[in-house]
Here is the input.
Amino acid sequence: MIVAGLALAFTVGFAAGLRTFTAPAVISFWRHMPLWAGVFTAGAVLEDVLDKLPRTPSRLGPLGLILRCVSAAACAVVLVGGVAAAALGIVGALAGAYTGSGYRSIVGRARLPDWPFALLEDAAALGLALFTAHAARLLGG
Here is the structure.
């Protein structure tokens, strides 16, 4: 059970690394926190739109990484609890941010249109966040 919880902390962190506000939006809905769910959903929609623009700053900049790590740690603590979960959430966020950036760089170097691949990344972040919320519920969280 402990290992499963820590795996969920990493996974929700990975989702937050891909999209900063998607994981907290899903977790807020799951925990029945309507005010926060609304705030984070608005943030997620705005982030998803801005991500498709050509002049969007890199997620690997200091602000982008800090926000992703805070988002991931908070989600991991809500899902699992504890410092170890927060730390694994942060590790997951860094992995997600660098993986997502690398994925989008490959798309750019291949001269493929960016937006369909950005939508796939949105879907991956949402899917991972939904998976972690559902798995946490099954584990009794």
Observations:
- The chain has a mean pLDDT of 94.
- DSSP finds six helices and no strands in the chain.
- Residues 83-109 form the longest helix (27 residues).
- The chain has one domain: 2-138.
